[in-house]
Design a protein that fits this description.
The complex is a heterodimer of chains A (about 45) and B (about 425). With about 45 residues, chain A is mainly alpha-helical. Chain A is built from 1 helix and no strands. Chain B is mainly β. The chains are: A mainly alpha (about 45), B mainly beta (about 425).
C-alpha cells in the first residue's frame, strides 16, 4: 500500500523530464538521475 | 525447448491468475519494486490455483500513451557566443508523445517522438551584424525501444535506438538496459549502456571566418555511458536507490561558435576544450511515506568530471495528498558547482593557454529551483470513451508543473510543463 503509491516511485516524474534536460544544459553536471548524457548540443 | 517454455508460460499465467484471486494488487512487472506489502501478507502460495476463465490469464496489459508539453524561458547576461557577456534570452517550446504497445504479456515496444522550437538571442550573435538563421531553430527527436521480460528469471532486457536533428547538430543513439529483481521482489539491479554518435555542422563566429583563425580538426562528438542502479525496499514506508554512471566523451567537446576574449587582446578566438571528458555522477534517492497525506522524496547527487567540475545537488519534494485522487507537490532543488579549470570570464584568459572557455554553464555557481506540481488521477480515469466494441480508451491522469530557476551568476528561467496519460484497454 504505502510502497505502491505512485509518489513513491524511485524515479524522476515524466512531467519533470524537461526540467532535467534543461538542467543538464545549464549546469556542468549531469547524470545519475535518468537524464541524458548526449544527443543535442545544448549550445544556446 | 518450446514445450518447456510453453509449460513455464502456462505455469506463470496460472500463477498470475491465482494471485489475482488472492487479491494481490499491481502485478505489472514495470514496477517490480513494489512488493513488500503483498509478500508480507501472502508469504506462500498454493501449488495449484483455480482457473475459472483461462482467457483472462492471457490478457494483454493495456497500451499506454503519454503526451508531454513544456514552455521554457530564460534570461541572462553571460552568453558564451559573445564571449561571456551578452543576452542569453531563450524560449523553447517542446512537445513529446510516448507510446507503449504490448506485443504479448512479456514483450513490448515503445515509440517516442518529440519536437522543440526555440528562439535564442545568444546563437543569433554568431554573426553580430545581422540576425542569423540560428535565431530560431527546430529540433526533432525519435526513439524506438523493445523490451522482453522473463518473469521466471525475474529479468527484463531492453534495447533502444533513436536520433535527433537540429540545424547544426545531428545525433544518433543506441543502448540497452538489463534488470534483475531479487526473489523476494524487494531489490532490483538495473544495468544501462548508451552511446551517442553526434555530428556538428560546424559554424564559426562570422568575423573569424575570413582570416582562418577558427579551425577544428573534427566535427564528431561521441558519448558512451554505463550505469548501475540498485533499488531496495527498506520497510513498508521507505525505499531507496543508489545510481552511478561512468560517461566517456571524445571528439569536438567545445562549441565552435563560442567566442573567447583574452587579456589585452581585442581579437577573439573560438572556445577550446580537451577532446576527452570523463564524467562520474553518483546519486542517492530516498522516498518515505511519512503519513497518509504526506510523502517525502529526497535526492542527492555528487558529480565529478575531468574538466575539474565538482558539484553537489540536493532535491526535496513533498507530495501532499488532497483527497484520494489529487496530489500537490512543492519542491526545492539546490545545486552548487566548482568551476571548470578551463573557465575564465571575458578578457581574463591568458593568450598562451591551451584550453579556454567563457561559457558560464562551466563556471562556479549555485542555483536554486523552486516550484509546485499538481497531479489529478481518479481511480477510473478522468474520461472514458469507446474506440470500438472491444476497445476502451481512458484518460488516466493529468499533471501540471511550474518551476522557477535562479543561478547566482544572474541567469533566471522558468518552465511550465504538463503530462497527460492515456490507456487503451
Amino acid at each position: 500500500m504505502y510502497i505502491n503509491d505512485a509518489d513513491m516511485e524511485l524515479k524522476v516524474r515524466k512531467v519533470e523530464s524537461y526540467e532535467v534536460n534543461a538542467e543538464s544544459y545549464r549546469e556542468g553536471a549531469s547524470g545519475a538521475n535518468g537524464g541524458k548524457v548526449g544527443g543535442g548540443c545544448g549550445c544556446n | 525447448m518450446q514445450l518447456t517454455n510453453s509449460i513455464h508460460r502456462h505455469w506463470f499465467y496460472t500463477l498470475l491468475l491465482g494471485l489475482s484471486f488472492l487479491g494481490i494488487p499491481d502485478l505489472g512487472f514495470s514496477q517490480t519494486m513494489n512488493r513488500i506489502d503483498s509478500l508480507q501478507s501472502f508469504p506462500t502460495f498454493p501449488d495449484t490455483l483455480p482457473i475459472s476463465n483461462p482467457e483472462e490469464a492471457f490478457t494483454l496489459p493495456p497500451a499506454k500513451a503519454d503526451f508531454l508539453f513544456s514552455y521554457y524561458k530564460q534570461e541572462g547576461d553571460h552568453s558564451a557566443v559573445t564571449g561571456g557577456e551578452g543576452s542569453e534570452e531563450l524560449r523553447d517550446i517542446a512537445s513529446k508523445v510516448v507510446v507503449y504497445l504490448p506485443i504479448d504479456t512479456t514483450e513490448s515496444i515503445g515509440f517516442e517522438i518529440g519536437v522543440n522550437h526555440y528562439t535564442s538571442a545568444s546563437t543569433d550573435r554568431i554573426d553580430p551584424l545581422m540576425s542569423s538563421a540560428s535565431y530560431k531553430d527546430y529540433r526533432g527527436q525519435m526513439q524506438v525501444s523493445y523490451t522482453k521480460e522473463n518473469p521466471l528469471k525475474r529479468t527484463a532486457f531492453s534495447i533502444f535506438v533513436g536520433g535527433s536533428i537540429e540545424s547544426d547538430y545531428i545525433s544518433a543513439n543506441a543502448g540497452f538496459s538489463w534488470s534483475k529483481t531479487s526473489k523476494d521482489k524487494n531489490r532490483e539491479w538495473v544495468f544501462t549502456g548508451r552511446s551517442f554518435l553526434d555530428n556538428w555542422v560546424v559554424l564559426f563566429p562570422n568575423e573569424l571566418r575570413p582570416i582562418g583563425l577558427a579551425q577544428v580538426d573534427t566535427d564528431k562528438r561521441r558519448s558512451f555511458s554505463l550505469g548501475l542502479t540498485v533499488s531496495q525496499i527498506i520497510n513498508k514506508r521507505l525505499q531507496a536507490s543508489l545510481s552511478s554512471e561512468v560517461v566517456y566523451q571524445y571528439g569536438l567537446l567545445s562549441t565552435p561558435f563560442h567566442r573567447v576574449y583574452f587579456h589585452r587582446d581585442s581579437l577573439p578566438s573560438i572556445e577550446r576544450l580537451p577532446k576527452r571528458r570523463i564524467k562520474l555522477p553518483i546519486g542517492i534517492r530516498l522516498h518515505y511515506f511519512a503519513t497518509d497525506f504526506l510523502v517525502l522524496r529526497l535526492y542527492y547527487r555528487y558529480y565529478y568530471d575531468s574538466f575539474g567540475i565538482h558539484a553537489n545537488t540536493v532535491n526535496v519534494e513533498t507530495p501532499i495528498k488532497i483527497g484520494r485522487f489529487i496530489s500537490v507537490y512543492p519542491f526545492y532543488r539546490f545545486h552548487t558547482q566548482q568551476a571548470s579549470r578551463y573557465f575564465q570570464p571575458l578578457g581574463e584568459h591568458a593568450i598562451e593557454a591551451t584550453y579556454y572557455t567563457s561559457d558560464y554553464d562551466l563556471s562556479g555557481f549555485s542555483s536554486h529551483k523552486v516550484g509546485l506540481g499538481i497531479k489529478y488521477a481518479p481511480l477510473y480515469g478522468i474520461l472514458r470513451f469507446k474506440l470500438s466494441k472491444k476497445k476502451l480508451s481512458k484518460w488516466k491522469s493529468i499533471s501540471i508543473r511550474y518551476a522557477q530557476y535562479r543561478r547566482t551568476d544572474g541567469l533566471r528561467a522558468f518552465l511550465i510543463s504538463s503530462h497527460l496519460s492515456f490507456e487503451i484497454e
